[in-house]
Specification:
five-stranded mixed sheet; two-stranded antiparallel ribbon; 7 strands
């Protein structure tokens, strides 16, 4: 009778070594595939959010929603009769989960009673001083307008102009102690709808890191407001977890959110997903959305009123 031959120790070790080599090769591939799937889901989320906003404008005379109510919260505990943009879009999105990116590393909220839940996207609320806005930033010293509309208190001085699609706070001059001219733009005012940003990824995990306890993005930080100064003279726009727009002239050695990528969440190294006013969404290098605010402000995709 023929005896069955068992594996030798050397043969077993060879098999184990081969499996280990294959695992070392394949695991990074699997990780990259998983990351790519999450990035695709993030892109789908931001596109659907943008679609919800377009549906909202159809019902509100072509006007976009403001970002945050005049009293800074849409929570019932504050007695608010108005809502933030994320809440205003709920009847159209039908999903709160849509506002959370699978790439966002944290859902922590410090004060849920008035901040709501964390979300992973921000609306374009770019603002600038009136003089610079009137000149379309051409021939205006950058340090006189970059990062200059972040106010610590209600001034009731209409000294800033909305250039994004949605006011960061619905505090309008003569009404709520605000500094802005309008609470939101209309779709017909946007000069380059196919090349003007409506929404960008903005991770709550980043906001927590940059803004400390006041880091929620549902009521407080779900917007992008100011361009950090290239020379660093006035770039502290970290209220509510960072509100900086990108500035491609800032060296890459400067860390976010004051760096070239601003407070935009990175989906891949240096890049993120953006939704545009005309309804499409795509992945872009973050700094390329505002590559040269000092010398060529016409390239700023966040400026919805640029010539």
């Amino acid at each position: 009778m023929r005896l069955k031959r068992a594996f030798t120790l050397i043969e077993l070790l060879v098999v184990i070594a081969i499996i280990a080599i294959l695992a070392a090769i394949l695991f990074p591939v699997f990780a990259q595939a998983k990351l790519a799937a999450k990035a695709t889901s993030d892109l789908s989320n931001i596109k659907q959010i943008n679609t919800a906003m377009l549906m909202y404008t159809n019902d509100y005379d072509d006007m976009y929603s403001y970002a945050i109510p005049a009293n800074w919260s849409g929570a019932a505990s504050w007695g608010s009769s108005s809502l933030s943009w994320t809440l205003n879009l709920q009847p159209y999105s039908k999903s709160l989960a849509l506002f959370r990116s699978p790439l966002d590393g944290s859902s922590k909220v410090e004060y849920p009673s008035w901040e709501g839940v964390a979300v992973s996207y921000g609306i374009n609320s770019f603002t600038a001083p009136n003089t610079a806005a009137a000149a379309n930033f051409i021939g205006v010293a950058p340090d006189s307008w970059e990062g200059r509309c972040e106010k610590p208190a209600f001034t009731n001085l209409q000294d800033c102009t909305l250039r994004g699609i949605s006011a960061p706070f619905a505090q309008i001059y003569g009404q709520d102690g605000g500094e802005l001219n309008v609470a939101a733009l209309t779709t017909t005012q946007v000069t380059h709808p196919g090349d003007s940003i409506a929404f960008a990824t903005k991770f709550n995990s980043d906001a927590l890191k940059w803004g400390g306890t006041n880091a929620t993005q549902f009521q407080c930080g779900g917007f992008f407001e100011g361009v950090p100064t290239t020379d660093g003279s006035n770039s502290n726009i970290n209220d509510c977890g960072g509100n900086e727009l990108p500035n491609g002239l800032i060296p890459t050695t400067v860390a976010a959110p004051e760096g070239p990528t601003g407070a935009v969440g990175q989906v891949k190294q240096g890049g993120s997903n953006f939704a545009f006013v005309d309804g499409h969404a795509k992945f872009l290098n973050i700094a390329s959305t505002n590559p040269s605010p000092d010398f060529n402000p016409g390239l700023n995709k966040w400026d919805a009123l640029r010539p």
